[in-house]
Amino acid sequence: MTKRVVLIGHPVAHSLSGAMQQAAFDELGIDARYELWDRAPIELADAVAGLRSDDFLGANVTIPHKERVVPMVDRLTEEASSTGAVNTITREGKRLIGHNTDVAGFKVALDRLVGRQKMPKQAVVLGAGGGARAVVFGLIREGFQRVIVFNRHLHRAEGLVKHFGRAAAHMELRAMPWHESIIESEIAKTKILVNATSIGLTADVSPVSPEVLNDELLVFDLIYARTRLLRDADAVGATTLDGELMLLHQGAAAFTLWTGQPAPLELMQGKLAEARAGGLRSAEGEPTGEPVVAAAE
Ligand code: NDP
Predict the structure, then answer these.
(1) How many CB atoms lie within 10 A of CB 215?
(2) In the β-sheet with 172-177, what is the strand arrangement from edge to edge?
(3) Overall pTM > 0.85
């Protein structure tokens, strides 16, 4: 019987995970089909309940459901419970296990970004959604001493900081309001800047003006494209990285959780590159209702 793995999001039509995961199943001769399930928040609980049947190996969960799905599974791994976000579900009998492989994906990306330099201790994170939670958890685990989180809706950043309260007790983790002058002064004090908002995903805009960037910065954008932020950062001589590596490695970790087999990384990377050449700029999921535009390379 062909097994099923589904991506649950809203919308999901332009997701890159389908091509990457299906190619990996086919390569390893695993009889499984990766399906895209576009489910509005109100349909989420039914969709998750449907995963308990024997047909399913599991699921990916993406925008906007990563936090909402947490109470709908039976058990959370350490990464999922620490972040309060689930991007991968596996099944043990009728029980569903929630994982967060974005954490592993971010770790690979952070190591690549920093390269041979000493791991910095301070970071500015833009955004406070599911992606930002994986980033902040990764930074805490990495031993960062000061992490400042900016978000358009301050209460969401405050909720994130509260969530990590105990894990971050030894360090300074703060939520700050989204004001350009405050962002500028914090970036001036830091080495790492992470964009975990979806600003730049559907339009060629940057979350910050180019003047706040400098050549000492290491800039990571979770979006899988050369966004305006990354191009502005390149222009001032900063070190930059886009979301491809994180997307690849979160997907590879999910593949292994579903199948118990190592993921064919090169093949999956090739599929992502093909999709990129085709002009898609999405990482995972697009903000509801907004069209995806071609990458401005
Ligand atoms: P969420 O929907 O959970 O969060 C979206 C974030 O973007 C929030 O912080 C939101 O702020 C902010 N935002 C959206 N639009 C605006 C705007 N116009 N102005 C200011 N802030 C805005 O999404 P995720 O956290 O899951 O994903 C965020 C981004 O990260 C996406 O682009 C996604 O593709 C990418 N991502 C990439 C991954 C990868 O593997 N490369 C993995 C996970 C995510 P507010 O709370 O105020 O609405």
Answers:
(1) 10
(2) 172-177, 146-151, 122-126, 192-195, 218-221, 239-241
(3) yes
